# Entry
Amino acid sequence: MPALLAENVTAGYGRTPIITGISLTADVGTITTIVGPNGAGKSTFAKTLVGILRTTTGRILVDDVDITKMPGHLIPRNGLVYVPQNDNVFKSLTVRENLEVGGFAAKGDSSERMEHILSIFTDLAKAREKKAGFLSGGQQNLLAIARALMVEPKVIVLDEPTAGLSPAYTDVVWNQIEIIKNSNTGVLVVEQNVERALKHADFVHIFVAGSNHVHGPASEIAVLDLASIFLGRAEAKRS
Ligand SMILES: Nc1ncnc2c1ncn2[C@@H]1O[C@H](COP(=O)(O)OP(=O)(O)OP(=O)(O)O)[C@@H](O)[C@H]1O
Ligand SMILES: [Mg+2]
# Structure
């Protein structure tokens, strides 16, 4: 059983579904990416996984526990955390305080966990008493990821963690994502840059118009005619 299993998920904001019949898995030790054109429903799906939006059909399991109807605030403790694209840190709190907030939902000793996290996120360790609002955009994104990791999740869902960052800092964030993957955590990343997704991911899902249109191992996706797929032509041939 994969760490995260989403099965036939349909959800939206009002009565009309935005995403329909989406199935996907993510497992510890792997990076799974979701790519697709603007408005395809990538963020909607991410929000549905973590209980911000509710499914109208389907189910979501984390480590075999059905979290589909679980209150959102209990989901991190059950092993699934989410980092939104924007407004993902408390700017007036220090790095340390942000991590402490992340630790509230944790089961064990959060000070030990914080030291562990800071030993991985060395940029943040140097700035631990700095207010988050004074960090660079890239560092703020790293802090948001680090904070989510405070609960020792099975799977972390990241919505465009490198949007708006310089190429150099994008490398830094992806390196960090690789480290997270190697520390017995599953990573599910919404990524706007298809090349990046193919480079770092084990599995790639291409969402088009609210469906999980095409998916597979990154090596298989890399040889497809992605331009056609993004335009919604499912029959896109291998090039
Ligand atoms: N709060 C909302 N209320 C109503 N409709 C919304 C809301 N947020 C998004 N939508 C609609 O849902 C659809 C999917 O949006 P979503 O943000 O999930 O796409 P996305 O794939 O994440 O796009 P992007 O690449 O631009 O981030 C769009 O048509 C969008 O207009
Ligand atoms: Mg989005």
In short: Residues 4-85+155-230 form a domain with the Rossmann fold fold (CATH 3.40.50.300). The chain has nine helices and ten strands.
